[in-house]
Design a protein that fits this description.
- The protein has 78 residues and is mainly alpha-helical.
- The chain has 3 helices and 2 strands, in the order H-H-E-E-H.
- Helix 1 packs across helix 3.
- The longest helix is centred in the first third of the chain and has 21 residues.
- 21% of the residues are buried.
- The N terminus is likely disordered.
């Protein structure tokens, strides 16, 4: 197992949710390498996790965490 810094707004997020999002990072990176700029809808990870703002898809939580740690930038917003 590896440790990553996840964006949690100082709120409690269970270790299950944190691990689920961390495990999604490599898949998200592979999809971005293949497709370029993507949204959480393009990734297809529909499993829900509890996140500081409420239940959300793993894909959204992973992208948000990667953005907050500086790994990703926002290309555009629809």
């Amino acid at each position: 197992m590896f440790k990553v810094g996840l964006y949690t707004l100082g709120c409690k997020v269970s270790s299950y949710e944190t691990e689920a999002v961390a495990e999604a990072f490599e898949r998200v990176r592979a999809i971005i390498r293949e497709k370029g700029a993507v949204s959480s809808d393009d990734i297809g990870m529909d499993q829900k996790v509890a996140w500081p703002w409420g239940a959300t898809r793993v894909s959204r939580a992973a992208l948000e965490s990667m953005w907050m740690t500086g790994e990703l930038t926002i290309n555009h917003k629809d």
